[in-house]
């Protein structure tokens, strides 16, 4: 999923008026500004080859692209690169007089709607947002998912279904598991019907549940789990352990602690294991980061856990999975450490979005 970070916004301007507007925006936002050689100003970057070539390169490097240009030009230049609403960056277009700011692409998942409102506020411009949920002043499931850094089975189809139900005035409930109930007020949930208890539902057409659990009580209405990515796994293993062995043991550990596999946020290990095929394949298959920690980083927390002299002689620290999970979860470990077939796995739950 593509979530806009302020430091990853590329801005393109094609005219003197666009350059002047970009200079105003640079005072308020950390932007990387591109323009042509003949319009170049201090702090701007010249197009590399051509405008289209520069946009093509930026499309995969930045999470948001802002254009001070005609909408038609922008549509033509980005059209060959469009792939997927879950992958494409936010695209925002504005005129050089700063009268209108248009959310053109990836309004929800990419954050273009939010960025459009931010830019419009800075410029006292008119934000142009056309997504149905926003027009109807309702929350959107994909926006909520992006804010929570959450996902779900059949994400694309479920988002389409739930958002359509919301704008059609159907009754969609929203239940927060105990781990998230305390922060529910931070999120835009307009249009959803709050649900406090799964055993006493109000009249609903569907129910969305924010949870890490692998299973919930069955309901008589369609139930969709929105799973925040919060679970981390510190992993140690012998060299050349088979990838399927590590994968099976991780799934076993997740199941033992009743975590949905979709909740997995990252795995971590010691520097010596940074090229371990089983761990690299695991991270690739789950599409999650593989965090690497030095011996010194792990040693700071080694005293908290039982140590193995064999492991110390092999990697330089007496424990790998537990201090790695401790660091990734800020000390919030869960369950027992699994130790089987030369593999150790420790789970933790991170509170970071």
Automatic annotation (TrEMBL):
A GO BP entry is: cobalamin biosynthetic process
| Stored InterPro entries | CbiG_hydrolase (IPR052553), CbiG_mid (IPR021745), CbiG_N (IPR021744), CobE/GbiG_C (IPR002750), CobE/GbiG_C_sf (IPR036518), GbiG_N_sf (IPR038029)
Which domain of life, per UniProt? Answer: Bacteria
Q: Give the residues annotated as coiled coil.
A: none
Cobalamin biosynthesis central region domain location: 140-220
The UniProt record lists the CobE/GbiG C-terminal domain at 231-347
Q: In this protein, which residues make up the domain named Cobalamin synthesis G N-terminal?
A: 54-134
Query: Which SUPFAM superfamilies does this chain map to?
Result: CbiG N-terminal domain-like, CobE/GbiG C-terminal domain-like
One matching Pfam family: CbiG_N
Q: This chain belongs to which protein, by name?
A: CbiG family cobalamin biosynthesis protein
Question: What is the originating organism of this protein?
Answer: Buttiauxella noackiae ATCC 51607
